[in-house]
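note to self: the first set is below, dont mix up w the second
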Amino acid sequence: MISVRVAGRMLTIHRKLVRYGLDDFVRATHLYRPLRFVFFLSPWTWFTRRRGTRAERLRLALEELGPIFVKFGQLLSTRRDLLPVDIADELAKLQDRVPPFPGAIARARIEEELGSPVTALFGSFDETPLAAASIAQVHAATLTDGRPVVVKVLRPGMREVIGRDLEVLHALAALAERYWSDSRRFRPKEVVAEYEVTILNELDLMREAANASQLRRNFLGSTMLHVPEVHWDLCRREVMVMERIHGVQISDMAKLRAAGTDIRKLAENGVTIFFTQVFSHNFFHADMHPGNIFVDISDPANPKYAAVDFGIVGTLDPRDQLYLAGNFLAFFERDYRRVAVLHIESGWVPAGTRVDELESAVRTICEPIFNKPLKEISFGLVLLRLFEIARRFQMQIQPQLFLLQKTLLNIEGVGRDLYPELDIWKTALPILKSWMRERTGPRAMFAHVRENWADVAEALKLLPIIARRAVRRAYDEELVIRTESASLDALRAELRESRRRTDTIIVSAAAFLGGIVWISLGTQPGWPGWLLSLASALFLAFRLRRPD
């Protein structure tokens, strides 16, 4: 049942959509079936002049509807698997253009959250905001010891506004799925649920502070990226204080060039930072638009990035990491069968999918991309094409992968704006190949064994007991009693199985002992002995635990 406040908000949305000539969306989704006669008689419907393209009018309508719909449009722009290209491109232009709220209110909220007067908490506090966005705004300040900081304060009443508009979005999604013929392809309920998680996470500034702290730890000592320090004693759910950074905004090309900045190095470092976050750290800043990226040009020959706004970060399942890197490398080598196999192994498409059919689909979608020189091919476009293949074969892709794709497109856009000749593949492929070697090589395997050594050692302790019991069961009278009443064929089958089990025990035990001898003699390299011992022990334990 739709509440009165939600119904009122929906009518407001309707009026603005019609005002921008988007009544076709209203009619297509049947969002206002009970009011359809009022709709058709409304002067807004008949006398509104449509100016601009459909995509431009949709962007303008969302901007007028307010910050929650702006952010929703920004999220939608990342789902290029769902949207027409023109709409996705236009929604990507959405910006949080909102006026600041009074500094006195910000001061009062800080004092309420931190429990002390601002004069006691800071050496100075500027009530004029440095920047204002839809969720929060930022003020300059200094700590009592003089260090410059920024104070991020949540907008007043945001939780209530967001709660109301989330209700509206859920109601619209439910109506669209019920009445809209294309809803199955666009999956509005899924998209709104994804957005709800993202927006609610951004309301918790303690979460953002934790994200910043983790990213800073990952890049501590880096010559490529600086992440500001968080002052935890001054952070609460609606207030966050961190080191103030100084630098040139990445979009200010004139200032960067005037300072003699090494633009090529800056662009290549951006790609390196991104792929390091995704694969080496598995923790990436997922809101890397130009407004959140600054450059320290104190040493123009070695420019250093500085990032802000850590409300949205992404992580990947280790299996997705592995198969994502494998897909990129296979695509680079045009090994479409490998791409198909990886899609199945990763779970991106159903397990029963025929490899030859999937390979043909991969070839059809990816081969035209190679009409361009490799340096002009977009990683983000390749990833989108891979997701399109999965969609065609009825697989649901995890939201984090779309977050990755959106961030990758941002990074590519920034990098090529800086340096149009940037060869992203040349920069990224060595990182991917090195990571794959580290992830799948012997050293990685032994590291995994070392991490889980307690479980392995416990299994090895049980091995002699399991072996003795298995041998006894293979030769004692239990086997005779069980087979006396069986048919001759059953007896022969069981004897063959018994001999196979006995042979397995003998061979595996010999291999295990051989590995132990290798290790005890100190033969170099030592890893073959460990590998032989561990593999034979685990195989034997697995084999003997199987039911007869």
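second set (the one i keep forgetting abt)
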Amino acid sequence: MNRFLPLLFLLATSAASLAHAANPDFDRFINDLADDIVRRSPGLATSSQYFSGAEQDALDRSLTAGDQWGPLSPVRRVQRLESTRRSLEQLRRFPPSELSPRQRITRGMLEWKLQDVARTTEFADQSYIFDQMFGQQIGVVNLLTVTHPIRHARDIENYLARLQRVAPVIDEGIAEAHARAVAGVIPPTFIVKSTIEGLDRFLADPPAKNIFVTSLSQRAALLTSLPPDTLTAALASAEKIVGDEVIPAFRRVRALLAGQMATATDVAGYAKHPRGTAAYTAVLASYTTTALTAEEVHAIGLREVARIEARMDQLLRARGFSDGSVNERYQKFNATLLPPADPDPRPALIARYTEIVRDGERRAAALFDLRPKAPIEVRRVPPFTESNAAAHYTRPAPDGSRPGIFWAPLAHLTPDVLWLGAGMKTVAYHEAVPGHHFQLTLQQELPEIPRFQQKGVLGAFTAFSEGWALYAERLAAEFGWYDDDPSGLLGQLQGELFRARRLVVDTGLHVKGWTRQQAIDYGIQPSEVERYVANPGQACAYLIGQLEILSLRARAQQALGGKFSIKEFHNVLLRTGTVPLAVLNEVVDEWIMAQKTKN
């Protein structure tokens, strides 16, 4: 777990270096770079509310084809590469020895990120523009209906301006998807089919009931100061734009995909693409923030699957489930915990999730000094994306207009769904407390974390952010949160087993030639398998990150003995903010050294 991508920086450890004052020129450079990144991504500007006044207002009206979905065209990819290389050259003019400790963290984080952007941009044309979970057609819907704020009349005007840009942006995506198909980059048949099914759900409703209109209606109706005739006029405009422009554009996406069915195959992995093997190596490194090879990740997955299944086998046998595979027995056990389908149990499930989150907030006081100020809510995933969605978290709005949200998909109420039955607690701990809500929201709230890092504009660093959330699941098990809930403990182990299997399946699909069915037979449900096909490498970040955080904690405990404090260890991680694992290692090592010198 100590194999990291080479960093071209060293964090100095001398006392003089650690006491070095902040370099104002470095801060100006970083702030200018972050500003430029946000200006080129209006969706990012909206989600972060990075600017203010006229500049923020202009970005809240804008939408670009490369907005939060990566550079699409070859021209944009070249521009991104050139800009990234220039930024790297400028960054290296600031030696670590001339920076403060916090600035050295930022420098390390940024150098890693810029190198990663250059590496992944080179292979951006190996990915899919339209897919069932992360495609451009879903990105524009989520930006307007979830991220775009509706706080006053001007936000509604900006919403309508953005809505008018949806069709042109979709058409640019269609052109790029066509170019990639000509070059041999076509989603497998089952991804195309699933994406078409999602489009059909979007297209099934008339404009007045389309999510672009209904979302605006629901949120704008809460504005008590908005004149009724203003709302009526806005909804009429939205309905017309959707009917005249948006729906035809989505139909053009459907036609493109329907045409690709003739040449698509069932081959799942990236290896089938012209430069797919190199592209997978790049995205695996990007998501895990390590230099682990696909073979090494596969081996770690096999090892962890064996360990966790052995423990689950004991627990299942103790409950009378002894026949069949661990996966089959767990599903049989979990089926005994699911509510009846009638009456609709979904409202009660959302209420139960809320109870778990509130209980987690109370229990977290024993392990954390730092806890977010912003509230957290549980909501059901909207129907348009629910059937293919995973449970997930969105940060609160910086201005307090939106809480942190744990999104629970409840389209399928079956025993193989991770976030139901025995798994409800562990998923709530992962997505909400003390998982994503603690880390991502504290990163946004803590004053010592630089603003661009608070807003997450320089990268998500999935291995740390998702590794933390999976660590939060393990933490709950280690500190007795399941002592009165043995079923929940089985759910926690199943969740961890799920992440271990993903290491095996993701690398199996993209390197070892696994089929979709092989991945399903290994114990991963179909929608999850399709997620790994559409977004390779991402699923590997979770367990790799968790194992590294556990390794760091064990290292600190061994080095510090009685001086070790779990609360202080958590403080170090949370105050650092989300960074690559290599940078996190350096930060923890410095903390260990500082703790050793304390009286």
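remember for set 2: Strands lie at 376-380, 392-394, 404-408.
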